[in-house]
Amino acid sequence: MRGYSFLSLARQALSGHKGWPVAWRSPELKKSYDVIIIGAGGHGLATAYYLAKNHSIKNIAVLEKGWLGGGNSGRNTQITRSNYFWPQSAAFFDHSLKLYESLSHELNFNVMLSQRGMLTLAHSLHELEGIRRWANAIQINSIDAEVLTPEQVKKLVPLININCRFPIIGGFIQHRGGISRHDAVAWGYARAASALGVDIIQQCEVSGFDIQSGQVMGVNTTRGTISADKVSIAVAGHTSELARMADFRVPVSSMPLQAMVSEPIKPCLDTVIMSPVIHMYVSQSDRGELVFGGGADLYNSYAQRGGIPLLQENVAALLELFPAFSRLRLMRQWAGIVDITPDTSPIMGKTPVKNLYISGGWGTGGYKAIPAGGDTMAYTIANDKPHPLIEDFCLERFESGTLIDEGAASGVAH
Amino acid sequence: MLRLDCPWCGTRDELEFSFGGESHIMRPTPDASDAMWSNYLFNKENPKGIHYERWMHSYGCRRWFNVARDTVTHEIHAIYKMGLPRPDLSATDRDS
């Protein structure tokens, strides 16, 4: 892998940008691998990267039915934060945020992390009390959080309409929260993993597993059967479908989560704003577009488009908070299929099938977890034992009753 | 926007209805194991294809009914009252 640097940029600029090498290889599919990872999204690619880098496993394939980073990795709203309530979530998601803080250097790829602050609003006394409790829990978990008055909110975000229909009476901010560029995260991990020898195979859909006496031996794909010592599932919205192929059940509902962008405008919003009660969040991307969205659609769906009623609610909520945006045109709208669990926490670790692992149930918040998800799943696959940070996120928690009921996962106050 | 045909009130926009999740789930007997309870409480079919689900006409008659809906195309194949068995959709069910 040829490194990206100021010098390489200058050299390419002088030669008309004609000499850039491809970022990752497109190798021939082999008959057998040590580890197969299903899904070349952020989580799958990060898992492959850390397996190759930290655990010296080089014979790895990442299988992707579509194109790399084309699922939820390219459909989320790029928010990175660790303002979680429960200690298990806080430890895991702050590990992820710390990895994000050094990710551009780690991957030699600029992921454009901008720690502009993640501001959560309160519109009622009850909600303000909930937010104080939430912020206290975050501080106890040694993560930064600061409760703000309405005046401080207005000073931080001059365009905001404090006296909206449900007036803003406070909020809290995680200063280390912010946004990064989601494509760069997927591409950066793909490039770095490919350089370490990982085979990324696109246009290769898994159609079944080869399971013998309770142990996975390989996968059947649209490009033939491939054998593997270990297999890991990282397919977001299709988690239930893959689990069904391996004959076990998961507590997952697949729902469309919409997001949309306005036409690009000059910089006017340098904070990520989240309002749990009207369920809307917004940030401004580096391209100038306002990126916003809200809750997931209310019924199961695998259609990546989302319903009109929720789109209208999202726009109405944005305009109530920011009347100045009412003249902007909506440029694009889309949806990703998110796999929501009953406690809104992810499912990571082993499955009832030996040597088959799972990373799913990410619901509406998988993007921020990509580095830590990859790091801990790589450990779990290499050692056949859950990484200490993800032990509590096991599939068995639904049987033992030790749920991690994380309202903060969806940004909703407790 | 879905248009659902409430068995009591007729066809209305989806805005009048609440989604109640998977239908035809049988509650286990009190002596069920933890695994059976967990399966009943939490595990879902969540198919990519025809989903048998419950809806309630919240802003109408407030009564529950069943819907067989394709989760990819959102096409509604059948609407039937609570307590009735799953209709036979083998001719349309892509998974069978």
Walk me through what this model shows:
The complex is a heterodimer of chains A (414) and B (96). Chain A has eleven helices and 18 strands. In chain A, helix 2 packs parallel to helix 7 and helix 3 crosses helix 10. In chain A, 29% of the residues lie in helices and 24% in strands. In chain A, strand 17 and strand 18 form a beta hairpin. Chain A is an alpha/beta fold and 414 residues long. Chain B has 96 residues and is mainly β. Chain B has a four-stranded antiparallel β-sheet, with no helix packed on it. Chain B has a two-stranded antiparallel ribbon with strand order 1-2. The model of chain B has no long low-confidence stretch (mean pLDDT 93). Chain B contains one helix and six strands; from the N terminus they run E-E-E-H-E-E-E. The radius of gyration of chain B is 15 Å and the shape is globular. The chains are: A alpha/beta (414), B mainly beta (96). Chains A and B meet through helix 11 of A and strand 3 and helix 1 of B.
Keywords:
heterodimer; A: eight-stranded mixed beta sheet; 29% helix; B: 96 residues; mainly beta; four-stranded antiparallel beta sheet; two-stranded antiparallel sheet; globular
Short précis:
The complex is a heterodimer of chains A (414) and B (96). Chain A has 414 residues and is of the alpha/beta class.
Provide the fold topology.
The complex is a heterodimer of chains A (414) and B (96).
Chain A: H1 6-14, E1 32-38, H2 42-54, E2 60-63, E3 79-80, H3 87-101, H4 103-107, E4 118-122, H5 125-140, E5 146-148, H6 150-156, E6 170-174, E7 178-179, H7 182-195, E8 199-201, E9 206-212, E10 215-221, E11 224-233, H8 239-245, E12 253-262, E13 272-275, E14 280-284, E15 290-296, H9 308-321, E16 330-340, E17 347-350, E18 356-360, H10 370-383, H11 397-400
Parallel strand pairs in A: 1-2, 1-11, 2-8, 4-13, 11-18
Antiparallel strand pairs in A: 3-7, 4-6, 5-6, 9-10, 10-11, 12-15, 12-16, 13-14, 14-15, 17-18
Helix pairs in contact in A: 2-7, 2-10, 3-10
Chain B: E1 3-6, E2 10-13, E3 18-22, H1 34-41, E4 50-56, E5 64-70, E6 76-81
Antiparallel strand pairs in B: 1-2, 3-4, 4-5, 5-6
